[in-house]
Amino acid sequence: MTITVGGSLRIASQLLTLEDPLPGFSFYVTLNPADPHLPLLQKLLIPVMALGAFAEVKGLGGELEVTPYGEGGVNDHVHLLPVRHTWGRITLRRGVIRDMALWLWYRAGLHGSLGARRNGAITVADEEGSPAVIYMFKGAIATKWIGPDLNANQSACAIDGIEIAHEGIEAIPVPGTGMASRIASSIKAAF
Question: What count of other Cβ atoms lies within 10 Å of the Cβ of residue 152?
């Protein structure tokens, strides 16, 4: 099947080739102190996390709560009305190192009136390591520190982590060589 765009022929199968899913192992996380109302001494206790410091990310998601509403005389379905939206808590896990940044962030939140808040981003990379999708979250507060499981009978790495609650996620796709880019470049080339 072929299509004509501005007199040029393009192969539809080339345009309709689906992009492979992104790998789940290629990502990095950044966390920055962000709350402008945070006292200076508390802000100094919250170091910036380095890129690539985490081995596992869980809990990216949100949920819209709905309430059923039955309309009189309508018996084939029930209306579902939106009530409120909630965001899942994000869990970040990494190998234990001498840097106590996760513990200090959690501890700073315990002693401050507003907690120690941060904005951050989780960037999923493609096979070449280039950013493909960025999940930006805002107003995150450390709600749970997870210490390492230690066992003298195993040779596994000690892993610690932190669970954070936040005020929202924004998903931002990074333009690449995906289907949308191929279609746009084919249309540009035709004109």
Answer: 5
Interatomic CA distance for residues 185 and 119, integer angstroms: 35
Q: Where are any strands of DSSP class E within the chain?
A: 2-5, 8-11, 27-33, 56-58, 62-69, 79-87, 90-95, 117-125, 131-146, 159-165, 169-173
Question: pTM (2 decimals)?
Answer: 0.69
Residue 160 near residue 147 (C-beta atoms within 8 A): yes
Q: Report DSSP state, residue 41.
A: H
- Give how far the C-alpha of residue 139 lies from the chain's centroid of Cα atoms, to the nearest Å: 14
DSSP-based three-state secondary structure for 13 = helix
Which CATH number belongs to the domain containing residue 168 in this structure? 2.30.110.20
Count of the separate structural domains present in the chain = 1
Of the candidate ranges 62-71, 139-148, 172-181, the one whose mean pLDDT is the lowest: 172-181
Both tokens of 172, joined, read 């931002």
Range of the domain at 156: 20-68+76-175
- pLDDT tens, position by position, 125-170: 888 878 888 898 988 888 888 888 888 888 888 888 889 999 999 9
39, part of any domain? yes
Residue 18: predicted pLDDT: 61
Answer whether residue 101 shows pLDDT above 80.
Answer: no
Longest C-alpha distance within the chain, in Å? 71
Does residue 129 sit within a domain? yes
**Euclidean distance between CA atoms 127 and 113, whole angstroms:** 43
